[in-house]
Amino acid sequence: MPSYLPASDPDFDAWQANFLSYANSHLAQLGLMLGDLIVANTRQLTWNGAYAANVAARNAAQAATQNKDAARATLESAIRALTQRLQASAAVDDAERAALGITVPDRTPSPVPVPTTRPVVKIDTSQRLQHTIHFADETTPTSVRKPKGVAAVEIWTKTGGPPPADVSQLVFLATDTRSPYLTVYEGDHGGAAAHYMLRWINTKGQPGPWSETATATIGA
Question: Looking at the structure, do residues 213 and 126 belong to the same domain, yes or no?
């Protein structure tokens, strides 16, 4: 059965004030005498003092917290401005940065991974004597984003005849940083087959594995 006494202090304070005010002013109607309320009235005085002190302390703590937060914000602003100046100064070395507790730049270049995935290739032949070469990574074939650490794609080709038996039959065509790549052919290539193989290269120029051969006819 739930208690008739409110759980929260503010609600309890209002409730007890009403309760004892009514009881003290209606002694006869309630069948009470003044002595019956001595204990409750005395303890109400103790409660009133304790509750008022608690409210004042909470208000003071809230004000102190706000003052503290404001003081910290202004101090942080001053420190950040000074730190920015120190970080840009040639007179400050990394040992001094460490002693100050500010960020020490990482002087070791992060290793660049060699590509491990392959491009997937689609050739648009809708324009005569042109091939528009679309490429994407095999792990994200619907996105034009390159894999992490990849700078560009190398496009190699073989024009005419059967697909290349190995990469030694390929001729370098281009390096492209964003799909698609457009290649234009002379008129005497019309009707010939063009074969393409692509591979990713990282920012150090290290290549990844070859794509599957993509073949398309050069429209005359």
Answer: yes
Amino acid 110: pLDDT: 81
What mean pLDDT, rounded, does the chain reach?
Answer: 95
What distance separates the 2 farthest-apart alpha carbons in the chain?
121
Judge if the upstream peptide bond of residue 115 is cis by omega within 30 degrees of 0. Answer: no
**Which pTM value belongs to this model?**
0.54
Q: Looking at the chain, how many residues does it have?
A: 220
Residue 209 pLDDT > 80, yes or no?
yes
Instruction: Tell me how many domains the chain contains.
Output: 2
Does residue 150 lie in a domain region? yes
Say if 102 falls within a structural domain.
no
211: buried, middle or exposed (CB in 10 Å: 19+, 13-18, 0-12)? buried
94 is a domain residue: no
- Encode pLDDT of 131-175 as tens digits: 999 999 999 999 999 999 999 999 999 999 999 999 999 999 999
Q: Which domain holds residue 185?
A: 119-217
Residue 134: CB atoms within 10 A of its CB come to: 15
Q: Same structural domain for residues 75 and 127? A: no
Q: Which residues of 70-88 are buried (b: 16+ CB within 10 A; e: fewer)?
A: eeeeeeeeeeeeebeeeee
Inside any domain, residue 23: yes
